[in-house]
């Protein structure tokens, strides 16, 4: 593959600092490391849904996205690989995360490679990936990497760094997601 692979991370974290952003950054780094190992050039970008919260509300009500929101939506839609991570609130993804995705063109998401991540206060929320995030991206017709990563507060050790078990899952997910994105990109290039 000779072109640069576009990797976009969409984080739905609402706090600052955000463990969801930390997980998103770790997933993005894992994909970048896998790309370096594979000799693949990547263009990395992170979109924070919370930075567009007011614009998302206005676009939802008025139907007119701001230039900044429109550009963020186009980045997500144009990604070869989307890393999508949200905190879990009451068993599901964050409202701002879903509201942002409600504005994404579903046709642009069809066949897109996606790596899923989620964070929560305890391990009891880990099923939110399978109960909420996977169905959302299945609706879009996205191709979802087999390994998704859920991280609870206990998965972040000293200074907010990933524990060895979390780091291993992140690495595996990053490698799988890159392989999926490369396979998808080759298929589209041959079409």
UniProtKB/TrEMBL annotation:
InterPro entries: CE1759_FMN_reduct, Flavoprotein-like_sf, FMN_Rdtase-like_dom, NAD(P)H-dep_FMN_reductase. Pfam families: FMN_red. Keywords: Flavoprotein, FMN, Oxidoreductase. Residues 6-151 form the NADPH-dependent FMN reductase-like domain. This is NADPH-dependent FMN reductase-like domain-containing protein. It comes from Occultella glacieicola. The lineage of its organism: Bacteria, Bacillati, Actinomycetota, Actinomycetes, Micrococcales.
């Amino acid at each position: 593959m000779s072109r640069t692979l576009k990797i976009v991370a969409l984080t739905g974290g609402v706090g600052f600092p955000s463990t969801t952003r930390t997980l998103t950054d770790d997933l993005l780094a894992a994909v970048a490391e896998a790309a370096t190992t594979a000799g693949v050039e990547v263009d990395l970008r992170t979109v924070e849904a919370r930075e567009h919260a007011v614009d998302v509300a206005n676009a939802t009500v008025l139907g007119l996205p701001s230039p900044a929101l429109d550009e963020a939506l186009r980045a997500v839609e144009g990604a070869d690989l989307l890393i999508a991570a949200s905190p879990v609130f009451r068993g599901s993804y964050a409202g701002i995360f879903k509201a942002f995705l409600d504005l994404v063109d579903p046709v642009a998401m069809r066949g897109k490679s996606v790596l899923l991540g989620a964070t929560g206060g305890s391990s009891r929320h880990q099923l939110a990936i399978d109960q909420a995030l996977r169905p959302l991206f299945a609706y879009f017709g996205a191709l979802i990497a087999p390994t998704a990563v859920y991280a609870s507060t206990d998965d972040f050790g000293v200074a907010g760094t990933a524990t060895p078990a979390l780091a291993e899952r992140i690495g595996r997910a990053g490698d799988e997601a890159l392989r999926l994105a490369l396979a998808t990109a080759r298929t589209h290039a041959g079409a």
